[in-house]
Amino acid sequence: MLPVLAEANSLPQANIPDIQWLPLIPHIVMAGAAVVLLTIVSVAGRWLPGWFASAWTAAAGLAVLATAIPVWIRVDQEGESSTIAGSIGVDQFSVFIIVLLACSVVLTALVADGFLHRESLDGPAFYVLLMLSAAGGITMASANNLIVLFLGLEILSLAVYVLVAMHLRRAESQEAGIKYFVLGAFASAFLLYGIALVYGATGSLNLADIRLRQGGWFAYAGSESSSTDAGMQGVPEGVAMLSADNGLLLAGMAMLLVGFGFKVAAVPFHAWTPDVYQGAPSPVVSYMAAGVKAAGFAALLRVFFGGFLGVADDWQPVMFGLAIASLAVGSMLAIVQTDVKRILAYSSISHAGFILVGVQAATDDGVASVLFYLAAYAAMAIGSFAVITVVSGPGDEGTGLDSLRGLAARRPLLAAAFTVLLLSQAGIPFTVGFWAKFEVITAAVDARSFWLAVIAMLAAVVAAFLYLRIVVTMFLESPDADAPRLSIPRGPAVAVVIVVLFTLAFGIYPEPLLNLADDAWLNLRLHAH
Amino acid sequence: MVTASWYLILAAALFTIGAVGLLVRRNPLIMFMCVELMLNAVNLTFITFGRELNDIGGQVSVFFVLVVAAAEVVVGLAIVVAINRRRPQATADDLSALRG
């Protein structure tokens, strides 16, 4: 044998990990549909009808939905696993979020259809970025590896920065874009530094590894004898030296929480939310409120509930504080706003507080309640911003509370639909929003966080006032005499009908959705079966 | 003797300089540079830990971070160019239409 070949044989072989393709199909379909759409429109754009991009995006969302169902069934039969060297988790938790993101994409595409034409922003850019962003969100929701999670977060964020700034003739849109970008990049840097510190403290970027290494971990650093613990196998030599105390891990967790807190708009990392929601094009806001928040919370749960469950005592008090701050600030500051988009931005902050109430419980019931809340909030938020898209009129300007004055007289059905969505956000019984709040508060009570449950209920009462204020403006005030006649495009109308039916159907009979959320276990597995 | 902690302290110092710079400077381009400084401080942290742990993961992460940083600058500069077309020489203080 040639000496060169002999040498080559003695080199370590590259380890090609096993890949399960079935759970990766939703990722591929979502990202692939975006790229293919861009190609089709650049090659054959002038022969295509105006609705093509929107219909393509809706179809892509439905295709992702269809390809996610076999994954759910397979996990149901064979249990959780992971693929690509443990970096992508195959579990029902991620499938739930994938389905949620796919539905957000479909509904946002419907909302955007008439809007882009009205604002002369026709073109595939909006839809391509929307699908790419959702592809990033899917990766975030199923990442079992911190760097993969970071990549997903950046794919999601970069696309949304552009979407926010894409209304080129509106100065507010660009201002919102640069604000969101600068603060978002700042938060990503914190998140990344947190990942680096956690890596240093635990010696791994894999969440399942990180969780294994916490059991009795800090005892290991002090004494050699406990190195035979089951959880300690395969820990690199250097790790013990670096984590002489758990300060490194705690600092890393704090940094990670800054990054996630920004993405989900939790107080005190919420400062961008009202400005960006007000400045960004309305359909983009509906996607941000539904999709970006869901992906952010999914990643937060994967890292903290999945990876750091062993040190839950350390992060639960912080979540407790974030939840209270978000509930208080979101509900109180919404009352003094005069712009509907700003009101709903503060309401989205207060909803983040409610979801954190479920996260803080750090139980399986808590995770299920968070998933249920995310699904309910996604529907309510997309519907509300679809109504605002229609009402705001040309230039996306009429977002003041006065533009809703007398909507009941001008467009009774639209006002009725908006009322249902607002009452659901307030948590009135027989709407899905009631069950969402009920579930997170139950989870908090079961985890013995009684004070948090009490504060959440008080915040719900305060927040109810601001939703009722919008309803009163629509029904009890008379419309301006010169108010233009509202035309409701077909896309937003269909989207609003779908979410109102969702809100009422699961409000009256929530069991199917509750069962799905209960089944969506978050269980990190290091190896494929 | 230069130990790992020296590198970690340097990285923490660079990260802090970047974070403070982003908060106090008003020129959008300088703010981008500060973000880059923060990301590169993280890269240094990754490399140091990777070496100490004798693990390839830390060094591989750096490549991903570099790519993300490049993509982030592309998007950021595009937004800055769009704003500059409308209002030349705008600083962060000029962009204050949205408040309340």
Please tell me about this protein's structure.
The complex is a heterodimer of chains A (529) and B (100). Chain A has 529 residues and is mainly α. A two-stranded antiparallel ribbon of chain A has the order 1-2. In chain A, a hairpin with a 4-residue loop joins strand 1 and strand 2. About 5% of the residues of chain A have low confidence. Chain B has a domain of 61 residues. In chain B, 77% of the residues lie in helices and 0% in strands. In chain B, helix 1 runs antiparallel to helix 2 and helix 2 packs antiparallel against helix 3. Chain B is elongated. Chain B starts with a helix and ends in a 14-residue tail after the last helix. In chain B, 36% of the residues are buried. The model of chain B has no long low-confidence stretch (mean pLDDT 89).
List the helices and strands and how they pair.
The complex is a heterodimer of chains A (529) and B (100).
Chain A: H1 3-10, H2 25-44, H3 52-78, E1 81-83, E2 88-90, H4 92-118, H5 125-142, H6 146-164, H7 171-202, H8 207-212, H9 217-222, H10 237-242, H11 247-264, H12 272-279, H13 282-307, H14 312-335, H15 340-361, H16 364-392, H17 407-410, H18 412-426, H19 432-446, H20 450-476, H21 490-508, H22 511-519
Antiparallel strand pairs in A: 1-2
Helix pairs in contact in A: 2-3, 2-5, 3-4, 4-5, 4-13, 4-16, 4-21, 5-6, 5-13, 6-7, 6-13, 7-11, 7-12, 11-13, 12-15, 13-15, 13-16, 14-15, 14-20, 15-16, 15-19, 15-20, 16-18, 16-19, 16-21, 16-22, 18-20, 18-21, 19-20, 19-21
Chain B: H1 4-24, H2 28-53, H3 57-86
Helix pairs in contact in B: 1-2, 2-3
